[in-house]
From TrEMBL:
It comes from Blastococcus aggregatus. Residues 11-38, 408-448 are annotated as: Disordered. Its main location: membrane. Belongs to the autoinducer-2 exporter (AI-2E) (TC 2.A.86) family. Residues 408-424 have a biased composition (Basic and acidic residues). This is Predicted PurR-regulated permease PerM. It comes from the Bacteria. GO terms for biological process: transmembrane transport. GO terms for cellular component: plasma membrane. It is a multi-pass membrane protein. Keywords: Cell membrane, Membrane, Transmembrane, Transmembrane helix, Transport.
Length: 448
């Protein structure tokens, strides 16, 4: 009798089917008719012609829907970009008017606390504002009068020392390891002189432009002070008037944003003034210990440089090191450089977090980009205004973001929000309780 063994089917390599089991026939695609078509293979090699999956019947419709969404987003982006370009163009044309207004607002943030103190003690608004502005002008003028004589006396001495330093550099270049001949140095100097003489007309034009810029700056400063007086005298009427130009619902947002932006400007000026004073004080002590000239002008430059974060401190420190190098030599310059670096590191890593906390939060990269953009657009004034403008944009962005999330950003820290009330004879803002679902803010309004 013959015994017949069962037929064994071996799975090919790479297949997960165990040996001795029957392979399951392929299942049809859920959208197919149930008939499995044989794969199309190459006639020579026998391999499949393509590894791409067959298209689904809904691919075209989904592609059209995605294209419509992309086209809508692109159109919206182009409209927003065009609106921003148009807004920048209009602001550029009105910059002559806007600059005194912005400067007047910044000065008003500094002078408002004493004006408010006087008004609370019964002083008329005009008298309080006028007295504070006059005292401010007197203090500023006295500071300039105190600096000018020392600068005039020591600049001549520094110029002589700089000439002697250039002679030392010339002797150093003629010796080893450079061994440059005096003829070569003379040719280089003559070339520089000829270049200056050839561009004398351009240099004269730059000088005229500089004088014109100084004149325009003085005119803007006078206008800013006049506007500052009116801001201090009538500033409390501004927010109700502005809110009255809108509806009752939008009025509370106008009032809240106005108060937040004012608080942001005031906080920025106070913080940078305190930081600048600390930097100027300690750097001035270092300059006094090592007998570096122009101590008071350098300290004042350091103070005002603090209002241009990062860039201003770098420029003021570079001036201090340069004057120390010209007057006292390389060793003292290196010591002054170390003092400036140490003070700035302490200010950036210790004082700034303590003074500003988490309220005024702008990344250092954002600050550098803002200062660079502002200086390229409007020079020193643009660099000075870049950071507060960026902070205001951050405040507006955070306000809109919280409003879209339903967090009621118009609610103040005491749990109230503004309500517009009035009639045809006048309008005023009253406080009303916040909605039950509103979050009471605990931090500063300037965080972003």
């Amino acid at each position: 009798m013959r015994l017949r063994l069962p037929t064994l089917k071996f799975a090919p390599r790479g297949d997960s089917a165990p040996v001795g089991t029957a392979t399951e026939p392929p299942r049809p695609h859920p959208h197919s008719s149930g008939v499995t078509a044989a794969p199309v293979t190459d006639a020579v090699t026998g391999a499949p012609e393509t590894q791409a999956p067959a298209p689904d019947h809904g691919r075209g419709a989904r592609l059209q829907a995605a294209s419509r969404v992309l086209a809508t987003a692109a159109a919206q982006f182009l409209l927003i970009a065009a609106a921003l370009v148009l807004l920048g163009y209009v602001l550029g044309k009105l910059w002559v008017i806007l600059l005194p207004v912005v400067l007047g607002l910044l000065i008003a943030t500094v002078l408002w606390p004493p004006v408010r103190f006087l008004r609370r003690h019964g002083w008329p608004p005009a008298l309080a504002a006028g007295l504070v502005v006059i005292v401010f002008l007197g203090a500023f003028g006295g500071l300039i009068a105190a600096i000018a004589p020392s600068v005039a006396d020591q600049v001549v001495e520094l110029a002589d020392q700089a000439t002697a330093g250039l002679q030392d550099v010339q002797e150093w270049l003629t010796g080893p390891p450079f061994n440059l001949g005096e003829d070569q140095l003379g040719d280089a100097v003559d070339s520089a002189i000829n270049s200056i003489q050839g561009n004398a007309q351009n240099i004269a034009g730059y000088a005229v432009t500089g004088v014109s810029a100084v004149g325009n700056g003085l005119i803007n400063l006078v206008l800013a002070l006049v506007l500052c007086f009116f801001f201090l005298k009538d500033g409390t009427r501004w927010v109700p008037w502005l809110a009255a130009q809108t509806g009752p619902r939008a009025g509370r947002h106008v009032a809240a944003l106005s108060n937040k932006t004012w608080s942001t400007l005031s906080e920025f000026i106070r913080q940078q003034a305190l930081v600048g004073f600390i930097d100027a004080f300690f750097i001035g002590i270092g300059l006094w210990i090592f007998d570096v000239p122009l101590i008071l002008p350098l300290a004042v430059l350091t103070f005002f440089g603090a209002f241009i974060p990062i860039i201003g401190a770098f420029v003021a420190g570079a001036f201090a090191v340069l004057i120390a190098l010209v007057d006292e030599g390389l060793t003292t310059a290196l010591i002054i450089f170390g003092i400036v670096l140490l003070v700035q590191q302490i200010e950036g890593n210790v004082l700034q977090p303590i003074i500003q906390g988490r309220g005024f939060n702008l990344h250092a990269g954002v600050v550098i980009l803002a200062v660079t953009a502002g200086s390229s657009l409007s020079g020193i004034i643009g660099a000075f205004l870049a950071v507060p403008v960026t902070a205001l944009i951050a405040v507006v962005y955070r306000y809109v973001r919280d409003e879209l999330d339903g967090r009621h950003p118009e609610v103040t820290g005491d749990g109230t929000r503004a309500r517009l009330e009035g009639d045809q004879h006048g309008t005023q803002l009253q406080d009303e309780p916040a909605p039950p679902d509103a979050e009471i803010p605990t931090g500063s309004a300037t965080s972003a």
